[in-house]
Amino acid sequence: MATINLKAFPVPEEVACPNCRKITLLQDPAGSEFYVCNSCRSFLRFITDTDALVQKQANKLKKEPVLPVGAEGVLKGHSFKVIAYLEKKEHGTNYGWREYLLYNYEKGYANLAEYDGHWNFVAGKEFYPPLEKLRDNKWTFLAYEDVEYALFNKYTAVVTALTGEFDWDPIAEKMKTSEFIAPPFIIYREQHSEVVINHYLGEYIEAAEIATAFKVDEKLFPAKKGIGANQFSKHYSRWHAVSRLTGLLIALALIIQIVNLVTRPATMVMDETFEITRDTSKTVDDFKPFATPAFNIEGRASAVEFEVRSDVDNNWLEATIVLVNEKTNETWEVTEGIEYYHGYEGGESWSEGSQSTTSLLSSIPGGRYHLNVYPASGDPLRNSVNIKVTTNITVWMNLIITCILLCIYPAYCWYRMRNFEKQRWLNSDFSPYEEED
């Protein structure tokens, strides 16, 4: 067992390989039962405190470790020393990764696991006591600290090469492992036997933080490839941030609209019927223009609605309405047409069109106004038109457009987040996106 409950790292001790007589430096001599000779690559086991026997020949390392055995650093608030380096792979495949065994003189072992340039700091119940209460439910998720972890992978891990010292035989073990993720965290469920199951918590960590902790050049670290199993998505955090902000902004816009509706209710400033006279000097469709009495638009700028109504019958009427500011002579113009037709055909009555229509002008400043009206009609007998003018109209379309615009960026963030997650789960046999694809 690793030597723990100390105040500092143990004094390293030199041991001679019984095979080649070369010296290897042990970082935790009292807590190490196995070690690899740095020279002849013999994998040895201590049978007494000083004597070791060769168990087998360790394979040559495929990659040089970026953290050398014996390197010291402070990570996650704990002092660590690298005491071993292992190369592993998934049994029956070529998927390989690397692990650095870290020794802390107070709590024991943790490790740094690296796959395709993605790193995790991994530790057990000695560092995360709630893990001891975690039980295997044989479901596709684990619940830990009120967070649900989804099943991401299952495999049997085997050691292909190693160096350093150990308190167990890592070459002999073939660990059945399940991974459950809740980025940036991952839980490893390792099954030693039918009754022995251990859980370890991993946290995604950037290479820069490790390089700083162990005073190693970051350029030596492998480059990232693809997306890590529990790599934190900046799109996820961005989506949640902007979605909350967008929700607040939409609520604020709605409150402003309601307050405006209550404090500035719609006010009818004109509702009059005007006689229209045909201009006999022109065509049958033309009528003489006329001006309405003046009316006031109170307060600040507001939306103004015009409703034009005439009892046209199987005919049409059109009016061009010019709103005139009597102080500045500034004008706004709208043209509205009314068509209403009806009849009886094939034993059924029918109708189309309407005898009224409305139009809206927005942001009309307060002041005194009148209307200049230019009517035209296909019915020479039509001699009246009703015009209503209402101010402080609540324009709900503005609120709808505002909400749509506010949702564009969150929708983009959601798309990026979802695409990131789909890419992540391409590496899993348990992807929740498989049915969609």
Question: What keywords describe this structure?
Answer:
single chain, about 425 residues, alpha+beta, eight-stranded antiparallel beta barrel, six-stranded antiparallel beta sheet, 25 strands, about 15% helix, transmembrane helix, DUF4178 domain-containing protein
> Average pLDDT across residues?
91
**Relative helix content:** 10-25%
Number of strands: 25
Shape: rod-shaped
**Strands across the major sheet, in which order?**
7-8-9-10-15-14-13-12
Alpha-carbon distance between the two ends: 49 Å
> H/E element string?
EEEEEEEEEEEEEEEHHEEEEEEEEEEH
Low-confidence stretches: none
- Supply Rg: 40 Å
Number of helices: 3
Strand content: 35-45%
Main pleated sheet: 8 strands, antiparallel, barrel
Q: In the residues, how many domains can be counted?
A: 3
**Structural class of the secondary structure composition?**
alpha+beta
Commentary on this structure:
This protein has 437 residues and is of the alpha+beta class. The chain folds into three domains: 13-232, no CATH class; 240-261 and 398-424; 267-393, Jelly Rolls, CATH 2.60.120.380. It is built from three helices and 25 strands. The protein has helices at residues 207-214, 234-263, 396-425; strands at 13-16, 23-26, 34-36, 42-46, 52-57, 72-75, 78-90, 96-104, 108-115, 118-123, 141-144, 147-166, 175-182, 185-191, 197-205, 267-275, 290-291, 295-297, 302-309, 315-325, 331-345, 348-354, 356-364, 367-377, 384-391. The strands form four sheets. Strands 7-8-9-10-15-14-13-12 form an eight-stranded antiparallel barrel. A hairpin with a 2-residue loop joins strand 21 (331-345) and strand 22 (348-354). Helix 2 (234-263) packs antiparallel against helix 3.
